[in-house]
């Protein structure tokens, strides 16, 4: 049995703040919570882990819907590389992760999906796979290999679904591609969350994709048409549709902080902070590969060597949280954007995203500057 008691914390989650907060968890599940000195009367075993938070911020564990690597390793490079990258993000507060894959030949994606399905069966902190490609618009490809981009034919869609053995949780698709609207319906019926992204679609087509079941926008503002006063585009369509959540890369580079704050204002409770991190997250500047493409990282900014497009980020979710707060986003909304909102996207908001009885004992302790001090998943402390 694992048992955890954290007391004297400042709880921050989507439900708000509580001072002098405590929680008691047994076998990975929060059993009780409270405030003040009531924790002293909680019966705990001799082997329980008891921690005084000294007033630090205690949040739910972070959930990253969109991340490609870290620590010098890419998720496309197999089990060992995935493990190294996950360790970096877990040390920064990410307790649950979707393994995101960039566009690659279908055979390579099938092999990656099969490996991720094996990993999900072994590691409960891995929630499944996210395919960011290969069904992307060549006009909005960003840092994806144009040679790997294809239309979503029924045969390929079914092959990818089958390879994942039920662990393909999310896919990015440009709805203007041939067969895309039909593919959205097939994917939704298979339980896959469809995200509109890397797209040249206008507002009307984006709305059609939402009506067919797409419920997410991949890194809003990036790799899509911007807001024009005569052509609102997919951004306005997503802000107006309360069924839709928007991913946001808040690293100070992809989206200006003032625009990021606008997203929180226009889509309250529907912004999911993501990292879109590539291998250089938690590592050094230098040359890397993103799929088959060479990337140069300078001062933490990743760009393609050929074409100069921004190539993912070197972000971790704790830094995204600090930047959100510095941008003027309310702290409970900022925390919700990397806890309860992504949990809701995945249909897991009854288990993750809050510090409340019955929820998983995933928690992050941060100091008053929002720097991570400790991380727990399923009630066990994660290495830092």
Automatic annotation (TrEMBL):
The answer to whether UniProt assigns keyword Hydrolase to this entry is: yes
Cofactor(s) the protein requires to work:
a divalent metal cation
Q: Which GO terms describe its biological process?
A: N-acetylglucosamine catabolic process
Catalytic residues identified in the record: 276
List the molecular function annotations (GO) for this entry: metal ion binding; N-acetylglucosamine-6-phosphate deacetylase activity
Record's PANTHER family?
N-ACETYLGLUCOSAMINE-6-PHOSPHATE DEACETYLASE
Positions with a binding annotation for Zn(2+):
132, 198, 219
The UniProt record lists the Amidohydrolase-related domain at: 58-380
**CDD domains referenced in this protein's UniProt entry, alphabetically:** NagA (cd00854)
Cofactor annotation remark: Binds 1 divalent metal cation per subunit.
Name this protein carries in UniProt: N-acetylglucosamine 6-phosphate deacetylase
Kindly list the positions annotated as binding substrate. 143, 222-223, 230, 254, 310-312
Family recorded in the similarity comment:
Belongs to the metallo-dependent hydrolases superfamily. NagA family.
For this UniProt record, the keywords arranged alphabetically read as follows: Carbohydrate metabolism, Hydrolase, Metal-binding
Q: Does the keyword Metal-binding apply?
A: yes
């Amino acid at each position: 049995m694992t048992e955890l008691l954290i007391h004297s914390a400042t709880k921050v989650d989507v439900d708000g703040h509580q001072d002098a907060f405590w929680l008691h968890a047994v076998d990975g599940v929060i059993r009780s919570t409270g405030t003040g000195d009531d924790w002293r009367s909680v019966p705990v075993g001799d082997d329980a882990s008891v921690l005084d938070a000294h007033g630090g911020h205690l949040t739910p564990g972070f959930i990253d819907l969109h991340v490609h690597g870290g620590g010098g390793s890419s998720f496309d490079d197999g089990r060992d590389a995935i493990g190294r990258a996950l360790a970096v993000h877990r040390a920064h507060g990410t307790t649950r992760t979707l393994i995101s894959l960039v566009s690659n030949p279908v055979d390579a994606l099938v092999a990656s999906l099969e490996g991720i399905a094996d990993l999900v069966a072994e590691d409960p902190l891995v929630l499944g796979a996210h395919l960011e490609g290969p069904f992307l618009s060549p006009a909005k490809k960003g840092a994806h290999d144009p040679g790997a981009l294809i239309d979503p034919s029924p045969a390929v869609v079914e092959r990818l679904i089958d390879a994942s053995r039920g662990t393909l949780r999310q896919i990015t698709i440009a709805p203007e591609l041939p067969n895309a609207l039909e593919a959205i319906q097939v994917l939704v019926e298979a339980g896959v969350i469809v995200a509109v992204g890397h797209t040249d679609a206008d507002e009307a087509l984006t709305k059609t994709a939402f009506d067919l079941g797409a419920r997410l926008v991949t890194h809003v503002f990036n790799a899509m048409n911007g807001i024009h006063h005569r052509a609102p585009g997919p951004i306005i369509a997503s802000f107006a549709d309360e069924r839709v959540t928007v991913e946001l890369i808040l690293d100070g580079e992809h989206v200006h902080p003032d625009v990021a704050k606008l997203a929180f204002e226009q889509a309250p409770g529907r912004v999911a902070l993501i990292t879109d991190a590539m291998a250089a997250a938690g590592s050094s500047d230098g040359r890397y590969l993103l799929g088959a493409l060479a990337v140069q990282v300078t001062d933490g900014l990743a760009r393609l060597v050929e074409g100069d497009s921004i190539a993912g980020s070197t972000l971790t979710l704790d830094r995204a949280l600090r930047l959100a707060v510095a941008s003027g986003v309310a702290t409970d909304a900022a925390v919700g954007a990397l806890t309860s909102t992504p949990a809701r996207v995945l249909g897991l908001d009854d288990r993750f995203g809050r510090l409340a009885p019955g929820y998983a004992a995933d928690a992050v302790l941060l100091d008053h500057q929002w720097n991570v001090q400790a991380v727990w998943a399923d009630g066990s402390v994660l290495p830092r």
